């Protein structure tokens, strides 16, 4: 697609209030301008568009669609009739000072005001100046077709050149019938479809009328609602970016899954770990193959046997000590029993008890109660002796 810098000249005179186009000439012109801007911007990565309202420059050639659309929609009616020679001169200067000097230059002029007051020589002079500067011009006539079309044809003929490869003219006049949308007429006109249409022809393609790529706007015609069309286009671009991110993430996940499968295969090929019995078997085989192991076992057994003998000696000594302690405890118990028995016999002797009581201070052995207790004790002793003697006799 060829690179092209385009200036669109809008007619904002009071005549554009007429309602012979829906909804009026000015709004129909804005709709057509929006469509042309879209086609031009999408035709080439470096193509630019500028906007001018008569001889008033609204926007220098740029690719900023937001600024272009803002300048189009903020344009309003002007109290004076547009001067075509002056407007063409301003547009020529804007194209001369464009940033990218490469590519072709083009002016699209909308005319809705009567041009019967303009001198034909001025129109011819303006056209020749455009041809000298290698600038093509297309004129779109909105209303007053009987008087404006011949005037515009003079300008176009003076500026017209021919394509070297096809011999077709590079400048055209398109008259839009009343009651129709200018964008519909432009879509099938030589301005867009051919005849030296430059970037417009390349972007729109041949035939079919609606040459713009509506796929970028969700299949809708951007001319019907430019703002909605731009919003749809931004939304579709965001959706494409999201789908690309999802695809990239899916590819990354697929790569990670492949790596995990490979790792699992490597793990499956590794020998299985030995269980406890097999490990013990391996250890027993290694011990049986060691020739020096018996000697080592005997050498290790000697200190163990010595330790066991020492433990036996210690146990015997502890046993002897325990027996001696047990015998001593038995002797002490026997002695204590004998002493107890001796003491018991002595307390049963009345003479011993009386002597013991007499030796105690504050005790009167002749006390009747003590004497009675002693008599009872002696009687019990005699009775016990008799019982013991009788038992021995019976035996």
Automatic annotation (TrEMBL):
<feature type="domain" description="VWFA">
    <location>
        <begin position="7"/>
        <end position="112"/>
    </location>
</feature>
<feature type="region of interest" description="Disordered">
    <location>
        <begin position="236"/>
        <end position="274"/>
    </location>
</feature>
<comment type="similarity">
    <text>Belongs to the proteasome subunit S5A family.</text>
</comment>
<dbReference type="GO" id="GO:0031593">
    <property type="term" value="F:polyubiquitin modification-dependent protein binding"/>
</dbReference>
<dbReference type="InterPro" id="IPR027040">
    <property type="entry name" value="PSMD4"/>
</dbReference>
<feature type="compositionally biased region" description="Basic and acidic residues">
    <location>
        <begin position="236"/>
        <end position="245"/>
    </location>
</feature>
<feature type="compositionally biased region" description="Low complexity">
    <location>
        <begin position="333"/>
        <end position="344"/>
    </location>
</feature>
<dbReference type="InterPro" id="IPR036465">
    <property type="entry name" value="vWFA_dom_sf"/>
</dbReference>
<dbReference type="GO" id="GO:0043161">
    <property type="term" value="P:proteasome-mediated ubiquitin-dependent protein catabolic process"/>
</dbReference>
<feature type="compositionally biased region" description="Basic and acidic residues">
    <location>
        <begin position="373"/>
        <end position="395"/>
    </location>
</feature>
<dbReference type="Pfam" id="PF13519">
    <property type="entry name" value="VWA_2"/>
</dbReference>
<feature type="region of interest" description="Disordered">
    <location>
        <begin position="326"/>
        <end position="395"/>
    </location>
</feature>
<feature type="compositionally biased region" description="Low complexity">
    <location>
        <begin position="246"/>
        <end position="262"/>
    </location>
</feature>
<protein>
    <submittedName>
        <fullName>Regulatory proteasome non-atpase subunit 10</fullName>
    </submittedName>
</protein>
<keyword id="KW-0647">Proteasome</keyword>
<dbReference type="InterPro" id="IPR002035">
    <property type="entry name" value="VWF_A"/>
</dbReference>
<dbReference type="GO" id="GO:0005634">
    <property type="term" value="C:nucleus"/>
</dbReference>
<dbReference type="InterPro" id="IPR003903">
    <property type="entry name" value="UIM_dom"/>
</dbReference>
<dbReference type="GO" id="GO:0005829">
    <property type="term" value="C:cytosol"/>
</dbReference>
<dbReference type="GO" id="GO:0008540">
    <property type="term" value="C:proteasome regulatory particle, base subcomplex"/>
</dbReference>
